[in-house]
Amino acid sequence: MSELVLPKINKETISKKEYIFKNLAKIINPENVLSHADEIKPYETDGLSAYTQTPLAVVMPENTEEVSNILKFCHKENIKVVPRGAGTGLSGGALPLNDAILLSLGKFNKIIEIDFENKCVVTQPGVTNLGITHAVQHKNFYYAPDPSSQIACSIGGNVAENSGGVHSLKYGTTTNNILGIEIVMMDGTICRIGGKTLDQEGYDLMGLICGSEGLLGVITEVTVKILKKPEVVKAALIGFSSIEDAGQCVSEIIAKGIIPAGMEIMDKALTKATNDYSKAGYPIDAEAMMIVELDGTETEVSELIKRVEDIAKKNKCSSIKINK
Ligand SMILES: Cc1cc2nc3c(=O)[nH]c(=O)nc-3n(C[C@H](O)[C@H](O)[C@H](O)COP(=O)(O)OP(=O)(O)OC[C@H]3O[C@@H](n4cnc5c(N)ncnc54)[C@H](O)[C@@H]3O)c2cc1C
Predict the structure, then answer these.
(1) Ligand 1 lining (C-beta closer than 6 Å)
(2) How far apart are CA 85 and CA 47, in angstroms?
(3) Cα of 128 to ligand 1 centre, how many Å?
(4) Using one digit for the tens of pLDDT, what is the confidence trace for 88-122?
(5) Tens digit of pLDDT for each residue in 128-137?
(6) I need a labelling partner for 299 at 20 to 30 A (CA). Which of 125, 133, 219, 293 fits?
(7) What span, in angstroms and rounded, lies between the C-alpha atoms of 165 and 216?
(8) Ligand 1 centroid – CA 216 distance (Å)
(9) Which domains does the chain have, with CATH numbers?
């Protein structure tokens, strides 16, 4: 893997840092401009922690207007800005730069509206992915994309990275589960794209923003779809004596038109590590283990489990266990 080369530092920006701090403190509450070495130390990296660089300053705006004014100022003064959600990204997108302002969305942590009738939630971008499900689960709803970091990662970061998880096989990634956004462009212009309805007219600008890794603007609001929890969820744990048989079984399940909610293969080393850590009860003698999660109505899931069992047997599985 080639080494990541960080952009060259603009010394002119560093030389006018006192002027920059002073002006930022006029735009937002001075308490929300962090510039002391001790204050900015925790922000020196993100999930790609092999790389570190302290930012020029960390700003923590509290509303869209403040974001817009910060970006207007930075645009005018030619200062780089790196947006940051929860900092769990593994590709270094929220990695700070010595000559850049790190714009944290940490104070954008409120859900604005829950609309069960239209099956959507309007939220600020700093709310965690799991926080959305927690807010709607009392009515049996949930937000489908589930990155493994969902307890910590922010929905704004999910949009910027087009994040997905194990259930993306059936329910898609972030781009398939958002309806609208508010975004502040790098020159400070505030734009709204989409809304509560499916399919907007004109160009698919949301498709462009989703996955743009914070390079096109700062997302300040997101409208996400929420789904009714499936009636029944069952997982089949299937052991195989070779990884090739397990792989062939995956191909055949998909080829037969079955779209499981999630499907993963683990090799023997991983199965052992998981068993040792969490006493998961996975088959210890299998060279490969496949987890197939099926969801839907009782009738649908029972039928699909039977079909998956038949395909697994055809592919020489060594064990099948159904978790209810
Ligand atoms: C243990 C672990 C497991 C993970 N599992 C998965 C997984 O299963 N699937 C997956 O897709 N990812 C996974 N990730 C990666 C990461 O969690 C996701 O990419 C997540 O979406 C990042 O969200 P964040 O809030 O932490 O964003 P950050 O890391 O803060 O930022 C990520 C990028 O988004 C930009 N950004 C953040 N907020 C905004 C905003 N409001 N406006 C504009 N740009 C913004 C940043 O500039 C940066 O480029 C995992 C990470 C960890 C540490």
Answers:
(1) 46-47, 82-90, 93-94, 105, 125, 147-149, 153-154, 156-158, 160-161, 163-165, 213-214, 218-219
(2) 11
(3) 11
(4) 999 999 999 999 999 999 999 999 999 999 999 99
(5) 999 999 999 9
(6) 133
(7) 24
(8) 16
(9) 11-104 (3.30.43.10), 111-228 (3.30.465.10), 232-323 (3.30.70.3450)
